[in-house]
Amino acid sequence: MNPRPTPVEAGRSCPDVRREDVSFISRGQRCAAWLYRRRVETPTPAPCVVLAHGWSGVREQRLDVFAARFAAAGIAALVFDYRHFGASEGEPRQLLDIGSQLDDWDSAVAYVCTRPDIDPGRVALWGTSLSGGLVLTTAARDRRVAAVVSQVPYTDGLTNLPRLGPAGLGRMAVAYLRDRYAQLRHRPPHMFPVVGPPGSFAAMTSPDAEAGYHAMDPPGSTWRNETPGRVALQAALYRPTRTVGKIACPVFFAIADNDVVTFTRSAQKAAARTPDAEVHLYPGGHFDPYFDALFERVVADETDFLVRHLSPPVG
Fold it and tell me: What are the E-state strand segments in 53-189?
């Protein structure tokens, strides 16, 4: 994997792109965002793709380089932090809640649809890992969405349970109960690690998880390696694959052929159930699409998909 990339390095790769700090309100709290646009604007409203990260991730963890590439192709890109994460408002910090994050996706779509420089009929979603599932859920219930990119997606929480083993399931249950007890006593959340080495107790302990997260993390990042115990039950019961049949727009699935975090086969099953799916299988593991030559291949394919499906109609 590459050394930690910086925002400056990301900007150099797309000199014709500018980034603006913006924000929007979700459930009464401010979500911080970056809006990427071409430096030379077109006279007509632009298409837009909305991006956010996966489990505990923040926008500076390689989402900037994806957004800059999309913007260079003429597609505005809004990259946001969920409430409770990064530069966004929300207490307690690091509060990962799937329902809350789905609300943030709804608010982000509503925000870009009200901007005069964005065409509300050409809005796409881009998600990765956990957010690869969140964008599928959002598209299934929001017909305004014109296209979706779901990268190494989390599609079925139940398939993740066996990999934990009896000991891991027991420790996850204890973390959940301790956090629920903290909630009832109005105390700070009980946290456990997002990533750790194989054999440790963390949400992700695959051989590539710890190195993958740290490789995405630039100097000065707001990411923290902790997640609340209450999300354990939510994640186990979260199954975007059950609603993909309701998605009316085209969906690009970027699937890694050796994904032991969200599981290759689970993503393939979800894609098979999606009415208008374009499936790309890439060599490597869960974190490989963010880096090096595979990043270049994946982002080129995703850009091509977005350009094809967000281009204005002819005539």
Answer: 76-80, 118-128, 145-151
Average per-residue pLDDT for the chain: 92
The phi, psi pair for 42, rounded to 5°, reads -85, 155
Pairing type for strands 46-52 and 118-128 reads parallel
Q: How many helices (H) and strands (E) does the chain have?
A: 9, 10
- Confidence band for 313, pLDDT divided at 50, 70 and 90: low
**Spatial separation of the C-alpha atoms in residues 67 and 36, rounded to whole Å:** 7
- pLDDT 10s digits, 57-83: 999 999 999 999 999 999 999 999 999
Q: Is the pLDDT of residue 3 over 50?
A: no
47 HSE (CA, 13 A, CB side): 26
> Are 149 and 161 spatial neighbours (Cβ–Cβ below 8 Å)?
no
DSSP string, 148-167: EEEES----GGGGHHHHHHH
Q: Containing H/E element for 231?
A: helix 231-237
